Fold these 4 entries.
Entry 1:
Amino acid sequence: MGLRRTSEERQRAHEGDNRTAHLRIAAEYRDQILSGDIEAGEDLPSTGDMCKEFGASTTAVQNAMRALKEEGLVVGHRGKGITVREHRMTAMRPAAYFAPVEPGEPYRWIAEAQRRGMTAESELLQVAEVVPPLSVAKALGIASDGTAVLRRQLLKLNGEPAELVESYYPIEIAAGTAITERKKVKGGVPTLLAGMGYPFHRAVDRVSARTPTADQGVYLKMPVGELPVLRTFRTVYSADDRVIEVTVMAKAGHLYELEYEVASDQLGG
C-alpha cells in the first residue's frame, strides 16, 4: 500500500529537502514502518507507482528499497513485489538498570531483558586507565589531561549487538577495586559502588542522535547509509551528589528507542 499522506502533503513536506530522491523515499517508508503505520505483511506499491508518487526515477526507487532491505525492514519477492517484515523497535528502560542487585541475582539489565522474553549478555572489550574525552573530563570534574578508569563493553540482546557502552570512573574511587580488573564485576558496578559507600542517588541523561563513528558502526553492525545512533551521555551521582560515573552509550537508532516514565511526585511546582 502507499504512504498515508496525500501527494500534495508530501510535496509540501519535501520543499527545501536537499537530500537525493532515494534518501527521501527510504526515509518516508522507514518512518511509516517503524511507527507501525504500515504493518508487517503489507505490500508496498510497485516500482512504477512509487516513481509516479515521488516523481522519481526507477533507479532512485530501487536504491531506496535496497536500503530498507539492508536494514531488515522489507523483503523482496521475485516477481511479487516488496513486503514489510515483522519489525518492532525495542524499548530500553534506563530507570530499570540502576539499582544494586542482591547476591546471586543477575545484573539488572539482564533481568529486565529476561522479563521481556529476551536473552542478554555482555562482552567486555576494554578496561584501562585513560585520558577521557573532554566532555567526560568536565562531567567528572577532572583536568583535561587527567585520567579515569574506562570499562568498555558491548551489550547484546538475543545474540545481536544492542549497545556500545563506555563507562568512566574517577581514579580515586576505582583504584584498587574490581572496577580496574579486566573481568566482570560480581553483582555489577552499581552494587560494588554502593558497598563502598557510593550508593546511586540520581542520574542525568542527555540523549542525541549522531552519525555513527567507525567503532560504533562496526560493533553495532550498522547498515551502510544515513541511519543514526542514539547516543546517551549519562552522569551518575551518589548520595552526596558526587559524580561517581560518566557513561556514553550508543545504540542503533532504527532498532531501539528509550522509554522514560515520570510520576506526578517528580514534577516540579
Entry 2:
Amino acid sequence: MAIPVFEVEFDKNGNVVDPQQVTKALDGIAAAQAGDLLVLSHGWNNDMADARQLYAAILARIEAQLPAAGQGRTFAALEIFWPSKKFTDTELIPGGAAALGDGDLDPAVLISRLEALKSEPQRLGVEEVVPERAAALTQAQALVPNLDNDLDAQRQFVEILRAQLPKDDADPDDGSDGFFEKDPVELLQSLSEPVPPPPLPAGGGGAAMLEGGGEGGLEGGAAGLGDFFSGAKAGAGRLLNFFTYYQMKKRAGLVGRTGAASVLRQIHGRLPQLKLHLIGHSFGGRLVTAAADALGPAVPVTTLTLLQAAYSHNGLGQKYDGTHDGFFRQIVTQKKIAGPLLITHTKNDKAVGIAYPLASRLSGDVASALGDANDPYGGMGRNGAQKTPEVDAAVAFLDRVGTQYRFKVGKIYNLNADEFIKGHSDIAKDEVAFALLTAVALT
C-alpha cells in the first residue's frame, strides 16, 4: 500500500513558507481517513531533492513492512523541510590535506571557510549573504595570519564568532555553555591540540568508513582519519566546526518548537484522534524532540523515533553530571511521549560525533573517550540516551525483521544498530522500519 505523503516547508525563522501546504495536508490526511501520521524530519542537508530522496527511501521500507507489522493501521506521512546545511569533509577535518610543512593548518583554508559562513540557508537549498555577519567575518579573516603569535588577534577572532550566535541554546549537556563562557584565548588554546580518531568499529570497520554515501561524505575515508593539525589556526578551524554545529542545533530546535509544533497543533485540532509518530534523522532528531517538548500533553505524541540523532547523549538524562538534567529531560518526566521512544545508535556513525570531541576540549578535558559512552559529551546517535533511568535494557539491539520486540509504553529503547546501520545516513532499512512499526502497533 502506498502511504499518502504531504509536505510542509519552513524558513529559517520557523515560519511556514506556503500556508497552502498546511491546508493541503489537513485536507489530505482527513480524506485518507488515516489513523496514524508519520512525521519525518531530515537532518543536515543541502537541497530539497536530497531530503525527498531520503524520505522516499525510508517510506519505501515502511511500506514494505506494513504486511508484517502494520496490519489494521491506516497511515499518512508529513515530510518536514527546513533550512539545514551540510557539514563537509573540510568542516569535519579542518583543511583536509591542506597543511603546511610544520603541521599547521593552511591559513587559506580558514579564510575560505569564513567566506562560506557569510551566507546561510534561508530556506532549504536557498542561501543568502547576511550583510552584518559578512562584515564581521571579513574582520575575522584579516586576523587569520596573526593567530599563531598574537594573543589579541586570538581574542578578537573568538569574540567575533561568539557575537554571531545567540546564547539562548547554550547548555552544559553538549559543552556549548563553554563556548560562550570561557576566556577567548583559553578557548582557542584548548582547541589547538590534535583530535585523534574515535576507535574503529569491531573488525576494523574499513568498508563502512570508506564507502562514503552519507550526508556530506561524512562516512568517507577522510572522516575516519582524525584531525592531526595543531596550533592556533587549527584551533580556529575546530572553532568553526563548533560554530556550524551550534547554528544547526539552534535552527533545528527553533523550527521544531515553533513551526513544526504549530502545524501539529493544527492537525490535532482538526483530527484529534490521529496518532502522531515523530521520526527524526540526525539534526532532525533534535527538531522532532523539540516539537514534542513544545506540544506537551495538550497534543499527545504517540511515539518518537530518533534515527542517528545529532544531539547530546545527555539530552534526556537525569543529573548526568551530578547536577544538571538534560536539555530535554522534561520530555520524560512530564510524560510527553505516550508510547515507546526508540533511539538507534551505532559506533559505525562517524558523523554524529563532530561536535563532541570538541566539546570535551572546550571543557578542558583533553583525555576524553572521543565520543563513546564514556565521553561526557558523546552523541545520541553514537551511544543512545545515557544517564537516563527510563531506558529499558530488556531490548538493547535493533534486530531482524520478525523479531518479537518487548517494547513497553513510556519506556526508552537504545537500539544498538551496529549490525545494520553502517553509516550516519544508512537508515532506510527494513529492520528500522519493522522496529518502528512494532512500536506503533503497541499504541
Entry 3:
Amino acid sequence: MKILNDNAPEHLVKKLAQLDIHSFIMDVIQPLEIKYYELLCPLQLMRSRNNFRKLPIWKFEDACYENVAVLLHTIPIFLRKKKDDEKDKDLLGAYYSGKKGNSPYIKLYLTDIYDASKKDDKYFKWLFTKVLIHELAHAALDIFNWEHNDIKREKVTYRSKYGKWREESMANAIALRIIRDSSKKDFYNYAKKFMRSQPDEYALGVLMENFGYWDFRSVFDSKIYGVKPALRNQWLKYVNNNPDWKGLHDWNNKILENLVK
C-alpha cells in the first residue's frame, strides 16, 4: 500500500499512524484478497502472493470488484489537506484515471474527512477507510476498460448526470459490501449510516449492497458501448422515485440488453 503525504496536516497524518490505519485497512481488505485468489488463481496462490505487490496496476483479467484487492497494493494514494474544488461540497477523495499519459492515482482530503467524522478518532479511522475503498472501487470500474479494452473515448462519461449516478452508487455499494464482509459490524453500521447521509447519487449505493457480477458489469459495459439517452433518462427517473433493490437489478439487466453496439 503506497500512502504518501502531499500537503495534509502533520497532526492528522500522525493521528492516522497512532490509529494504526495500515493494519486496520489490511484487516478490512484481507477477506477480499483471499476471495480474489480463490476465484482467479487457486493453483498459484503462494507464487501469486510472493509477487503480489509487484503487479502492475492494469494487470487483471476480468471485470470484478475483487480487483480492489490488487489496486490497494499498487495505486499511489496521496494525502492532501482539502479538496481542490470547493464547489464540490461532498467530495472527500478523488480518483484520477491517468488517461492523459500519467499513472492512475488517488487523492484523499484528510482535513475534510476529519471534519466529516466530527473529529472523533474512531470515526476518523472508519471514514478514512471507507473513502479509500470507495475511490479504489472507482479505479476498478475504470482501469479494466481503459487498459484491457483499450478504450480511446468512453461512451458514458462521469461528467454526465447518468454517469455520475451510476458510478458513485456502484462505488458505494462495493465499499459497503467489502466492509460488511470484513465482519466489523460497528464499522459496517457506521458506513451505511454515513452513506445514507450523502447526496442521493451516493446514498443509492446502500440499496445496491448485494449486487452481483452482472450488475457490476452493467456499469463497465455502459462506458464501453453507450446507453441510449431515452434509457438514461428513464433510469434517472426511476432512481429518483423510491427505487428498491429488485428494481435496480432489473434495470441493470435492461441496460445490458439495450447497449448501443
Entry 4:
Amino acid sequence: MTLPFEITPVEAIGYLGAVFVVATYAMRTMIPLRSVGLASNAILLGYAVASHAIPDITLNAILLPLNTIRLVQMIRLTRKVEEATHGDLSMDWLKPFMHRRTSKAGEVLFRKGDPAEEMFYTVAGHFRLVESGIELPTGEVVGELGLLAPEQRRTQSLECVKDGEMLVISYSSVRQLYYQNPRFGFFFLQLATKRLFQNHARLEAQLAELGEPSRQPAGSGSD
C-alpha cells in the first residue's frame, strides 16, 4: 500500500515541530511548558532553515533564546523556593521580584481596613504597626496577611517612624509566582504562619505582663 502523498525529511521535521507546538497546550506547569516550547522552537528553526523560510527563521531565532532564558529562570526559581521551604524563610531570593520604595517619618503606608494589594520587606529605617504597637526592625516582612485576610483588607495600620526604605511586591506578582511554581504557596503559608505565631506569642506576653493569663475552659487542654 502506498500513501497518496510522500513526506520528505524536511516536511517530517516541520510536522514534528507542529506536534511539539500542540503539546505545549497540554502542559499545566511552567517548566514543562517552557521545555516543550524550547524543543518546538529548535525543531521549527531547523525546518525553517531547510525550507529557506526567512520569516520563520527570524521568529524562532528570537523565541529560542527567550524560551531558554525563561526556562533557566524558572529552574532557578524552583530551586530557590525549595531551599526557602526547607530553610529560614529568607527573603533574599524574592528580592529580584520586588521594587524599592522610600518613606518619610510620619507617613502611613496603609491603614487598617484599607484594601490590601502588596506586601513589604523592611530594608532601612523604623516602622511600627500602629494598633499593636509592634516595632518592625530591618529585614522584616509585613503586609503578607492581607492576602489571606477576609476581603483582602488590612488588619492593622503601618506607620513610618523614621525615614526608611522598603522592598515591595504586589499580590498579583505573588500569585504569579505561585502559578509558575506551586511550591511558592508552601513558602508563603510558612511566612504567614510564622507571623500568626509571632502575634500569638506577643499577645501571651502582654497578657502575662498584665497578670491576665489566657483563660481556658475547665478540663480543656492546650494545642
